[in-house]
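Q: I'm teaching a short session on how sequence maps to structure, and I want students to see two examples side by side rather than one. Could you give me a first protein with its sequence written out and its structure tokens following it? Keep the formatting plain so it prints cleanly on a handout.
A: Of course. Example one:
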Amino acid sequence: KLLFWMFTVCCFGLLGALRFSPSHATPDETPKTHYITIKKQQNTNSYGNHYIVHLKNKEFALLQTPSKFDFAPGDRFLVYGRCEPISPPKNPGDFDFNRYMSRKGVFQKIHVFGDHYKVLTPKKSVLRLAFKTQQVLISQLKTTRLSGESKALIMALVLGNKNELSEERLE
């Protein structure tokens, strides 16, 4: 009986170690075509959009696009570009985005500019349906007669979209 429990603990320990120590991707130095699937939208700002994407080799990467591109979870693409490591902070004391993303299992980034991608048939998933429903509700909420701050608060609390909140509310 003791041998069984020792074996069980060792198996769970090994599985846990494999789960929480993702493989560090080696970024490519030469541009090539990558098959990617959008997993989730990470951040949107005036400079562009960031998405967590799943690469064909079972690794995750950060996809950076100009703000004119608007993708949803489940969108699939062939992207021509180079995987680059996420840069460490430039100054001591700055936010370490590289460390933050590595905790999420993301060690590289891909930029999309211009026409260096081809859209494929989207992958159907519950996450994609939820995202599309969220976008419809946000667009309908924007057409109501509520004040801008009320709309932003409802979007943040009910729909999880904090993009419209003022700086004061975010703090």
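Q: Perfect. Now a second example for contrast.
A: Example two:
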Amino acid sequence: QVKGSDNVDLSTYAGLYHQVATDQTHRIQLRNGKLAVESLEVVATGPNTLEDTRGTVKVEASERDGTIQLRVQPRNDVAFEIVKVEEVKPTNAQLEEYAGSYTSPELGVNYHISANNGGLVVKRRLQSELILAPAFKDAFSNFGTWVFTRDAGGKVNGLLYPQGRVRRVRD
């Protein structure tokens, strides 16, 4: 445990977060007694509040159904929410569930996905292979978050993926 201002346990906030509105993932790490998000260092300013050391971002923490949620308010930008998610390390057998071809007729793309070395490999026509790293349940990241869908029986049946400025394209 690392305690910050007001005896706040900063390690509670370390981990992977999902920004549902944009499908981005953000990693918050504990470094030298402070929380770090990319190049920003964040310190506790109260029992449920955090702020970056430059004063450009304020964060309000809350918990809903046992899940930490952060409301991030950049000084000159629109606030957004991120939700802490449990990171996953799927087995090779679990990765094989995602293997297959995924097509979007609207965009004219066809992705061939295979399991490889703890992640997924995406093969695309006329482009180099893309390696997807496991993020959270049924989600992988690289150039956005690729989220697999499942049917009522739990079988993988689709993929929502980023395509340029378009997000959550369904195959």
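Q: What should students look for in example two?
A: Point them to this: The longest strand covers residues 24-31. Also worth mentioning: The chain has a mean pLDDT of 87.
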